[in-house]
């Protein structure tokens, strides 16, 4: 009787989990184990690029690569996980409900932008979190030219001065001018509740970030958060009013709500605590990876970030280990001690850092070239060639992006 490894999610972590599991099964010559992946869309949505122009183009088809490597794809959504009987309830693309059993499970359902219950945030803000949301923002920006020339029309407010907020804000002056005309005086304002831009990025790259934003004409309102948003703009927590027809929310992520259906320990972001093999603590047969996993990256006390950089390697490790667990083979502990960041700073360039202290190694045009290579090459799926795809899924092949 065949066994089943079930992967939920087709993002970076889910895709690489399926391919890595297929790699080990192929090496062992096992044809009695089925790998099934369930996701709403048979594409990898290249989420790290959604702050750029043309977000509808940032996706890569997965059907051919899954066919080449023997991964069964089900287009649908998992509604409920029953760990006590190792089964899930799902709804397929046609709206039909069914139950699917598994022997081992990999949860790789990622994260979503967190919108707090601040008045107006749900109804009056845009985002670059998901493809459809980024497409909506692009259409809105292009439509601004049909509105009367007012300060509100010509102003973009970016709520959140973290990684995504900075990258988004750095793109906005050029995108606004392309929509409204080079002669229009545009404003882009980052609202950040902390006293420094990029609070999670540390002091290392901050002077570079401030220089780049300043040269692009992006200003920051620090030490004050968003109190409310309406159709005409933002009111900050210190009472200032910023008139704007384009408010982009970038402040914070939360893990997929499916993590709450697994009886494991969750962190403040809703991520499941996992051991060094990415198995969910105290829940036999269940692994978590990517943005739904809180995993140690090294022995120095550092843990994974909700980032593509970590998700790809977490996926390779989870896929190998879930298959090794099922086959009774040795597991390979996840380890990713090298940490880098490459922050896009729009037309100014980029800044590249290494280490958790984020020591600046490259900046400006040189870093921008690296960022372009990461965004357009390194994070995309391999070719739909069985041998190449399985080789790329090696859990010891650490990719830094």
From TrEMBL:
Record keywords: FAD, Flavoprotein, Oxidoreductase, Signal
Pfam family, one: Pyr_redox_2
EC number(s) per entry: 1.6.5.-
Cofactor(s) the protein requires to work: FAD
Region forming the signal peptide: 1-21
Classification via InterPro entries: FAD/NAD-bd_sf, FAD/NAD-binding_dom, NADH-Q_oxidoreductase
GO molecular function: oxidoreductase activity
UniProt key word Signal: yes
Enzyme class, UniProt record, top EC level: oxidoreductase
Domain FAD/NAD(P)-binding, residue spans: 4-313
Alphabetized Gene3D superfamilies for the sequence: 3.50.50.100
Family note: Belongs to the NADH dehydrogenase family.
Record's protein name: NAD(P)/FAD-dependent oxidoreductase
Organism: Paraburkholderia guartelaensis
